[in-house]
Amino acid sequence: MRQMLRKHLGSMICAASLAAFSLSAAYAQDAVRIGYAVSKTGANAGGATTTTIPNYELWVKEINDAGGLKVGDRQMTIEVVEYDDRSSSEEAVRSVERLATQDKVDFILTPWGTANNLAVGPIFDKYGYPQIAGTSVTDMAPKLAARWPNSYWLLGTGGSYAEGLVDLLVKLREEGRIGDSVAMASIADGFGIELAKAGRTALQGHDFKLVYDKTYPLGTQDLAPIVNEVKALNPDVFIAFSYPPDTLGLTDQARVLNFNPKLFYTGVATAFPLYKDKFGAAAEGVVSLGGIDPNDEKVRAYIARHKEVVGKEPDRWASFMTYAGLQALQQAIEKAGTLDKEKVNEVLRTGTFDTVLGQISFDNKSRQVPNIFTVGQWQDGEFVGLEPADHPGAGKLVFPKPAWPAQ
Amino acid sequence: MTDRPVIAIGLGALVFAALAFVPYMVDGYGMSLAIAIANYTILATAWALFSGPTRYISLATVAFFGVGAYTVAVLGEVLPWPVVMLVAAINGCLLALLVGLSTLRLAGIYFVIFTFGLTELIRQVVTWYEVKVTSTVGRYVFLDIDQQAIYWQLLGVAALLFLSGYLIGRSRLGFALRVIGGDEMVARHVGIDTTRAKLLLFVLSALFMTLTGAIMAPRWTYIDPAIAFNPQVSFQTVIMALLGGVQRLWGPLLGVIPLTLLFDWLNAHFPNHYLLILGIVFMLIVYLLPQGVAGALARLRGLRSRKERASAAMKEARQ
C-alpha cells in the first residue's frame, strides 16, 4: 500500500495540480472579480452583519445561480475577494487600496457605515470605481457627490429623516390629535447628533415645544433615568435618535415603566427583524426611520429570497438601499455590456434601474434616490413606510400608539 | 552601531534619502503599506524614546495622535498646511506639559492607568464639546493631500525623530534618563532633576505623536472622536515597540515592520479568523521573544561570542 502510494503520489499530484491550474485558468476567463472590505469584527460588525454582508452574499449567489452576469455576449460568474476592515478607517483604506491595485478586481462594493465610506471615497475616485453606498447617512451627500463624481448616497441625508418625521407631526397637530410638547433624546455620536440637530431646527421652525432635549453618551447602559424623566413630563411625542443597543434598551424601559406616549419613535435597529423578534406584539405602533410597501410584489419577493438564502429577513431600511444599489450595479454592467469602469459609470449616471425600491435613477446633482421612505411604523408584524405620504404604497399611521401588551 | 556621530548621521541620512524614492517604485497598495509602516515606526519609536529608558509604560499615544488629527479636522481648511502643523505641534506639547507636570511623579501601574484614562477623558471632552457647542460629532477633512505627500511628510518626521533620538542618546539628558530607568531614587541622589528630565522627553515624544496624527488625518476624510482616539492605536504601538525592543533606538523598527506585514498578510488570507490567529501569534511572541527581537539578536550575538571564546580557550588548552 505504502509502495503503491509512493509510486502513484507523483502522478496524482501532477494531475491534481493540472486540474487546479485549468480550473483557475477557466475562472480567470469567465469570472467578474468583485471585492469588498466590510467590518466583520469591531464596533461596526453588528450593522455590517445585519445589513451589508447578507445582501452581498445574496446578490452574488443569485447571479451565480442564474449562470452569471451577462457582459456583452459572455456569461460571467462572480468571484469574490473579501477583507475585514475591523471597523477601522485606516484598515478600510488599505484594504480597498489592495483590492484596487493588488487584486485588481473589476468592481468594489462599499463598506458599512458613514465613516468608512468617507474614508475610502478618495480611493474609489482615484481608480474610477463606482461607489454605491447603501449605509451612509450624511448631510454632506450632495457635496460628496460633487467631489467624487462616481459616488452615490442611497440612504440620503440625516436632515431628510428628521424632516419627514416633523412633517408627520405637523399633520397630526393640524388634525388636533397631538399638542405642542415633544421630548427628544439622542445619542452623542455622528448619526444621533446630525438627526437631532435637523429635528430641533424643524421642530422649532414649526413652533413645537421641546420639553426634553438631551443627549446621552455612546455605550450608555442604564436608560431608565431618561425614560423616567420623560415620562414625568408627559409629552405626546417621544423621539429617540438612538443606536441599536439603546433602541432596544429604551423600548424595553418604556415598556417596563409603562411609558406609552401617543407617538413613540426610536432610531437605528427599530426596522431590524431583530426588533420584531424581541418585542413581538409590543413592537406594534413603534415609529422609526425607513419602511417599505408590504403590498409591493418585488419587496415581498426580495424578503422571501433574503430569508431563504441568508436564513433571516432583511432589515426594513438600509438593506433595501444596499440591495437596490447592487441591482443598479448589475443592470449598469449588463447595459454597458463591458467591465470597463468608465462606461459602467456613464450608465449609472444616466440610466434608470428596476430595483426593489422601484424604478430609480441617480440622474440628479445629489446622487441620491429622490423618493425613499423616511418614516415607517410597525403594523401587524410589518414595518410599513409612511412618509413621504405621496410615495406610492405609503401606509396610514396607526394612532395613537396602542398600549404595551402585558408582559 | 558606530561611535562616530558624523558617520552614523551620514548613514542615516542616506537611508532616508533612499526611502524617499519608494513612491516611484510601488503601486497604491505598496504606498499604503509604506504609510502604515512609517506611521507606526514614528509612534513606536517616539514611544520608546520616553518609555525605553524610563520604563514608564504610557498608553497615551493615541491621545496625542488624536489631538493632532483633530487640529487638522478643525483648522485644515482654514489655515495653510504648515501653520496647521505648527498649531498641532503646539497643542500636543501643551497637552504633554500639562499631563507630564501632573503625572510624572506617579510610577508603575498608576502611570499606566492614568495615561489610559487620559485618552478616554480627552475623547469625552471632545465629544462633549462637539455635541454641546458645534452640534456635529463627525468632522470632514477635505484636503487634497495624496498618499505620496503623506508618506514624504511621515518620512521627514521619522528622520527628525531618529536624529533627535540619536543625539539624546549621546547627551547628558539621555544618560540621566538611563539612570532614572535603573533606579529613580539613585538618580535623585546623584543630583539629577528627574522630573525635568522626564518631562522634557515626554513632551518631545508627544510632539512626534501629535505630528503623526496631523499628517494621517487627511487620509480618512471623516474624523470623529472614536476614530481619532481609538485606544487600539496605543496598544498596537506598545506591542510593536516591545516586540522590537525598546533599549535601542532602532529596536521598535524591528517590531513595526514584521508586525505590520503580518497584520496585513493575516487580514488578506484569513479575513474571517484574523483575531483568533492574531491572539495565538501574540502569545507565541511573548513566550518565544520575551526580550523582543533586538534582545534576541543581542543574545544570539552573545551566544556566538561565548562559543568563540570557548573554542579559543580549547585551542589554548591544546597548545
Describe the 3D structure.
- The complex is a heterodimer of chains A (407) and B (319).
- Chain A has helices at residues 2-30, 45-65, 89-101, 114-127, 141-147, 158-174, 190-205, 224-233, 244-256, 273-279, 297-310, 318-336, 341-350, and strands at 31-38, 69-71, 74-84, 107-109, 131-133, 151-153, 181-187, 209-216, 237-241, 263-265, 287-289, 352-355, 358-361, 375-379, 382-387.
- With 407 residues, chain A is of the alpha/beta class.
- Chain A folds into two domains: 30-157 and 296-361, 3-Layer(aba) Sandwich (Rossmann fold), CATH 3.40.50.2300; 159-291 and 374-387, Rossmann fold.
- The radius of gyration of chain A is 24 Å and the shape is elongated.
- The model of chain A is unreliable at 1-7 and 9-28 (pLDDT under 50).
- By secondary structure, chain B is mainly α.
- Chain B is built from 14 helices and two strands, in the order αααααβααααβααααα.
- Chain B has helices at residues 5-19, 28-54, 61-75, 81-103, 109-134, 147-170, 172-182, 184-189, 194-216, 225-228, 231-244, 251-269, 274-288, 292-318, and strands at 139-140, 222-223.
- A two-stranded antiparallel sheet of chain B has the order 1-2.
- In chain B, helix 4 (81-103) packs antiparallel against helix 9 (194-216), helix 6 (147-170) packs antiparallel against helix 9 and helix 11 packs parallel to helix 14.
- The radius of gyration of chain B is 21 Å and the shape is globular.
- The model of chain B has no long low-confidence stretch (mean pLDDT 88).
- Classes of the chains: A alpha/beta (407), B mainly alpha (319).
- Chains A and B meet through strand 3, helix 3, helix 4 and helix 7 of A and helix 2, helix 5 and helix 12 of B.
